[in-house]
Write a structure and sequence with these properties.
By secondary structure, the chain is an alpha+beta fold. The protein has 18 helices and eight strands. It is elongated, with a radius of gyration of 31 Å.
Length: 432
């Protein structure tokens, strides 16, 4: 095998020489000291800088293309001069686009992340970050460059809250790459979002207020007759302050009337922690009515909110429910907001409210609070649902009517069924 072949380095020439198994090394007289040594499989190779008899590996091909290594060559030589004992190895991440490709792929494979978060990151990278930063060299990343190419143009097109999320994603990508040794320095170290804008990010104004709930209840009562699935999705969210994602995936097996509890698996929650919600008598009655409607329609499946394929509603399908119900006036998240704000007006403890929402309490609170406070949560929801009864909830779940019918039965039937025990009247996963 010939030790070395002199060529004019280009990507096409390297691939052409890789097909010739008689060639081991390539060099270009225009770039003294730079060599490419092919691996045995000929599909990969290692870039070296040669000083005397010492071959210093600096990168891998094709991870670092010909044009990329030539662009980095002056910096590589300087690093080698400053620290001869240290190999100035660089990765293929010469540009921000390459780094984003790597990090996006890493996020896509991260099982700890929700599908929604993965999709959001994928969209931010494809729609905003790569189009503006794809060809920017990692070595040229500065606050000024980011301001001109990303931050200032984007603030005119997207909300500041979304821009902050993109900035955080980019910052995390650089930090992770540095920790894994894929880049030799983090050019974003020390940068903060408020370095680029002093504008305050204001929370979105709530589009549902407690005074609007009587009208909303009338609407949901009518919807329950025409489209019970739509109405039930909204009612479960309003009654518990749950998110649309964790609600739409609910299964009947996660509803226990015997234990009076709704269990939400960690995989379905945004915080990736399981969530347990007490079921009040009103919600139990609502679930009984809804299950009976499903069964009358011939559905015996596992989901509370199935689609036509028998799976749970997709994110798009669930969003469409609130497009129909809200008609542009309010969204699913407004149900969660009005629940939380009314809890405060009702005097429900703030920590209990945050627990009901399944919010992360923070490091200090999580360190000292080692209880699920289920009794306090139940008391809070009972107070909330009693308030909802006054604005029309009672007409939908029918608990008062059901208890009235029980009380009118024979003494034997009345004795056999406690007024607050509805478990005997439900056909659910618990009884199968």
């Amino acid at each position: 095998m010939s030790a070395t072949r002199e060529v004019k380095l280009s990507e096409a020439e390297v691939r052409r020489q890789a097909a010739d198994k008689s060639v081991r090394d390539l060099r270009d007289p225009r770039h003294p000291g730079l060599y490419l040594r092919f691996w045995s499989n000929r599909e990969r190779g290692t870039w070296h800088l040669v000083r005397g008899k010492k071959w210093v590996p600096v990168a891998r091909w094709p991870d670092l293309s010909v044009s990329a290594v030539l662009a980095e060559l002056p910096a590589l030589r300087q690093r080698l001069l400053r620290s001869p004992a240290t190999a100035p190895v660089v990765s293929g991440m010469v540009t921000v686009g390459q780094l984003l490709d790597w990090y996006g792929n890493r996020m896509a494979r991260d099982r700890s992340l929700s599908a929604k978060r993965k999709a959001g990151a994928r969209s931010a990278i494809a729609q905003h970050l790569k189009p503006r930063l794809d060809d920017l060299a990692v070595a040229d990343v500065t606050a000024d460059a980011l301001d001109k190419q990303l931050m200032w143009p984007c603030q005119a097109e997207v909300s500041l809250s979304y821009l902050r999320q993109m900035f955080a994603l980019l910052l995390t990508a650089f930090r992770q790459a540095l920790q894994l040794g894929l880049i030799d320095r983090n050019p974003m170290a020390g940068m903060r979002f408020n370095d680029f804008t002093k504008a305050k990010i204001l929370p979105k104004a709530a589009r549902l207020r407690d005074v609007q709930l009587p009208e909303l209840m009338q609407q949901l009562a009518q919807a329950f007759e025409a489209a019970p699935g739509d109405a039930m999705l909204a009612l479960m969210m309003l009654a518990h302050g749950t998110r649309i994602g964790e609600t739409r995936m609910a299964r009947w097996s996660e509803i226990s009337l015997a234990a009076a509890e709704w269990f939400i698996p960690a995989a379905n929650t945004k915080t990736r922690t399981e969530h347990r919600l007490p079921l009040t008598a009103q919600v139990e009655a609502l679930l009984i009515r809804y299950r009976a409607v499903q069964q009358a329609g011939g559905y015996e499946g596992v989901y509370l909110f199935p689609n036509r394929r028998g799976l749970s509603l997709s994110e798009t399908q669930a969003s469409a429910v609130f497009t129909r119900l809200g008609q542009g006036k309010w969204t699913s998240h407004d149900l969660r907001k009005v629940s939380r704000s009314t809890w405060t007006d009702l005097g429900i403890d703030g920590h209990i409210g945050e627990m009901l929402l399944n919010h992360t309490l923070g490091k200090i609170a999580s360190t000292y609070i080692h209880t699920q406070a289920m009794q306090q949560r139940r008391a809070a929801l009972e107070k909330w649902h009693a308030w909802l009864d006054q604005v029309g909830f009672a007409a939908i779940h029918g608990l008062t009517k059901a208890l009235s019918e029980i009380s009118q039965n024979s003494p034997e039937a009345t004795a056999a069924v406690a007024p607050n025990d509805l478990t005997a009247f439900v056909i659910s996963e618990d009884s199968k």
